[in-house]
Specification:
This protein has one helix at residues 26-29, and strands at residues 13-15, 21-24, 35-39, 42-52, 57-62, 79-84, 93-109, 114-122, 135-137, 142-144. The protein is mainly β. Strands 1-2-5-4-3 form a five-stranded antiparallel sheet. The chain has a five-stranded antiparallel sheet with strand order 8-7-6-9-10, with no helix packed on it. It is globular, with a radius of gyration of 16 Å.
Length: 145
């Protein structure tokens, strides 16, 4: 009574190696019994390699080769694009903004501890479903997740 079970969900991720490793948010894949990754028009079954719920990071692996991984580089004042899957239905959506600050320290009080995170401040719109999607500079290089 009062419990619900999620049968499916959607999020975003970023290719980090040409042989199929993908970075996403831990809450996107946490508790999933099946993970499917869509790259272009193709769907791949994926396995969870590892996750860290404290930093909300997870890595999944698909059986693919020749993928183009993202790289990273970021500066304050730089224009950025957030790519994701808002509402789990609008894949490939892009919003733009500018980086206001790097390494903003934010503390989050948990049930038994305080977790301090170092974050990027920017004004690109990020909606539910964008979790795990990449933040890219204007050269197409990954600058954050």
């Amino acid at each position: 009574y009062g419990q619900s079970q999620v049968e499916s969900g959607a999020g975003s991720g970023v290719i980090i190696s040409s042989d199929g490793y993908i970075l996403t948010c831990a809450h996107v894949v946490s508790g999933a019994s099946n993970i499917t990754v869509s790259i272009g028009d193709k769907d791949y079954p994926a396995t969870l390699v590892g996750e860290d719920t404290t930093s909300d990071i997870a890595v999944v692996k698909v059986d693919a080769t020749g993928l183009t991984p993202a790289t990273d580089n970021l500066k304050v004042g730089e224009s950025v694009m957030a790519v994701g899957n808002p509402l789990g239905e609008l894949g490939g959506t892009v919003t733009s903004g500018i980086v206001s600050a790097l390494n903003r320290s934010v503390s989050i009080q948990g049930s038994s501890s305080v977790n301090t995170m170092s974050l990027i401040q920017m004004d690109a719109s990020v909606s539910p479903g964008n979790s795990g999607g990449g933040l890219f500079n204007m050269n197409g290089e990954l600058v954050a997740l």
